[in-house]
Amino acid sequence: MELQAVLMAAGGGSRMMDLTYNTPKPLLPVGNRPLIWYPLNLLERVGFEEVIVITTKEVQKALSADHRLKTDVKMRLDVVCIQEEADMGTADALRHIQQKIKTDILVVSCDLITDVALHEVVDLFRAHSATLSMLMSKVHEFTETVPGQKGKKKAGEQRDFVGVDVTGKRLLFMANEADLDEGLVFRKSIMRKHPRMLIKTGLLDAHLYCLKRSVVDFLVHNKSVTSIRGELVPYLVRKQFSKSLNSQNETEDSEKNQKQQDLLSTSKDEALLQLARERSCWNDHRGDMSEAYHGGKLRCYVHIMEEGMCYRVNTLAAYIEANRVVPKLFEDPPIHPGALVSERSLVGSDSIIGPLCQISDRTSIKRSNVGMSTTIKEKVKITNSIIMNGVIIEEGCNIQGSVICNNAVIGRGADIKYCLVGSGQHVEPEGENKIMFGNNNLDISDLFVYTMIVY
Amino acid sequence: NEGKELTKEEKQRLRKEKKQHKKNKKDDKGPPEKEKEKEKASVPAPSKPATQSPAHKAPAPVHASESAAAAEKPAKSKAELRAERRARQDSERTSKQGKKEGGQQSASSKPKATPNELQPVVKRLPEHVQVDDPAALKKLAKKLERQQVPLRSDYGYKVSLFSHLHQYSRKSPPTLQISIPATVIHPSIVRLGLQYSQGIIAGSNARSVALLHTFKQVIQDYSTPPNEELSRDLVNKLSPYISFLSQCRPLSASMGNAIKYIKKEISNIPSQCKEEEAKGKLQACIDSYINEKIILASEAISKYAIEKISDGDVILVYGCSSLVNHILCKAFEKQRKFRVIVVDSRPRLEGREALRRLVKKGIRCTYVLISALSYILPEVSKVFLGAHALLANGYVMSRVGTSQIALVAKAYNVPVLVCCETYKFCERVQTDSFVSNELDDPDDLIVTRNGKSHLENWQTVKSLGLLNLVYDVTPPDFVDLVITDLGMIPCTSVPVVLRVKNVDQ
Fold this sequence. Notes:
heterodimer; A: alpha/beta; seven-stranded mixed sheet; six-stranded parallel sheet; B: 9% strand; eIF2B_gamma (chain A)
């Protein structure tokens, strides 16, 4: 087998606690499907037949109960549960399932929504026998207004500095602003081998990695590495240029610990591969006297998506943006056949209604996503909002630019603008809740709503 | 005239005698003799290939080959042989009557007139030079569909002289429709195909070695399904892989010979042989093939070639031939004093890689582009060329530009030596570079200077075609010596070597 897929779905969603304090991140509805469906769909589309899903017990229960998921996803899901309290990093999780891993792996995060042609990433991995191949995308500005945010998004997010070579494929340098003191520090060996390097900052890491089997063995021997993105990837990128005095880096030391049989066959094959490389008149760089890849055995590659959709739903802004964009991806009918929509209601063409909904007369729904089993009574106006599953909205409400979480109840005549109503909350009837855009004014009733959410 | 003078009875008598003679022969050689007579009669009418029914023509060459094969199997009883043959011919005739293939007809309308001592091999036009024939394309599409190999579509406008060849773009990789992870096609083969199509493994020797290495891995991972024999099933398993590789990049002559060798070795595995033993045997065969035909051959060729290099020589090389580089490095180690002129050409600019390797060794080099060839040639004392394949009529198939080098060198009376291992000898016959060639990605010809590429939108100009040829053929008159592992032979002795090889096998 060539690749095994590993889906990391145990993360907490720490950057959008408002949404995830009650619902685990993999089950958040985006476009009326659980978030975890999107990476699973991506893997299924390219041809995977089974996926190892690392998640918590809660999510596993929900997954096995979700009928729609069962019918939609035809792959075999091998669900591995880990304790939520153990606070495992992604690398720790890989160490945990080390026994199951028999070949190279493709690690995907559960919050990735993308339409990338996956063969671009995997072809880099295959053709260059790379140790790491990852996906990055140009960051798109978010256009939707986010409840609770005043003004444009500050550049509070730490920037990522990514250095690639002239072809734009080989990954030479990766550092996060948080790890740097004053400036970027480059090793001379990188500059000697690749005198022309392009440094990009506006890139989003999609958390999709192809890793060689030997990396998993390396993780087993180095228990200090906890996170793939935070520690493992920068380590591998740095190790490409480490002095070959150490010559075999740790990944190859662990390769020696493999079964003797493997070793014997690979050494002869290695000699043949080496012969083929020597006889081939190809080089990946020009201008110096070294052979292809500078003789290095560790290579990291990146595919940078210029166009196309790539979202990581780990912040509220990303969640809202994804909800906006995703319905256009799929050809599902916007109004699910299982929903009861009254004829005298107005549902815009860019809204989607989930199954088992009840939409009463004289309601108007524009540019919104309405989740499963939601009841919307008469004379309700919903614009630019996201309504999750099981919500009850009484008559005469006016909801604008807001996010209403699972099982909330909005009382009669409530006027909600740019708010986030948490799971299971009740909003008072006739409550006026609005946040002035760009202004620090908050009504008392807003505070009331927020205190209930934050508690 | 003589016939007219003979009386009717005498003619009849003659005919009876002939028939009797034939009947006696029939008991020795079987029915094909009669068909050979029919064949001889049909050959003088090659001008009407289209009107003849395919059933008449197509079995004829089949019979010819089978007759030769029959003569070599005296072990089986003649009656059994005859019965088998008849059954096979019947089935083939009915299947061929169903199809009307223009390409097949034109090819089979020139069967070998007389079976000579060489095995008359049935030659059909390979599909990769019939791209402008929709029937052949359909056949190829059906075959690929059956093997579950994705069909790679051609790209861009093709110059009319070369419209019978495939032209692929690097931007549409062959893995577009291959599932991730690759299940139908072995992952190593997918990797190899990608490396071929992106040019990471380029050069005749490198491609063959990589192919054999991958076959070793395929054989390692192979397990015989129940009720199947390894000798037959493994060959069937390899066919879709080979189709996939030829979709990525057309197979080279050396690869073709290597594949023939492997298939022969696999079919020769006795059925009692256990799977592990058979696999080990095959791996050993592959290792010994590489060792003999490539590694040891290059050592032998270096030894012969070094005799031809004297002190003070100025040697001209073209492009990056792994064998020529090896020879020059070995000669340098043996303390010969010479300098090298590396000639290079766009768009591949492989000479840069050759230059790097030679300079790294310490050899004094000069680098020119092929347009400066006639300027630099008066300085040159010898020309060493590598070859992609040596054809049966003595023509040398090599990187495009080689024939120019040989031509100009001949004009300046500079000796041209071609270095080629015997496993690259192929039985094809070609006198021009049009019939069978390879078209590379036309976008490689686009050059960007100061951020501007003038040819960027070449597809919008209807009358413009970009042609990126890969190979050309050099006539034997321009080549003075061919250095092979069997020795130094003139170009015209290639058919002799081929014959000797065939007899050995």
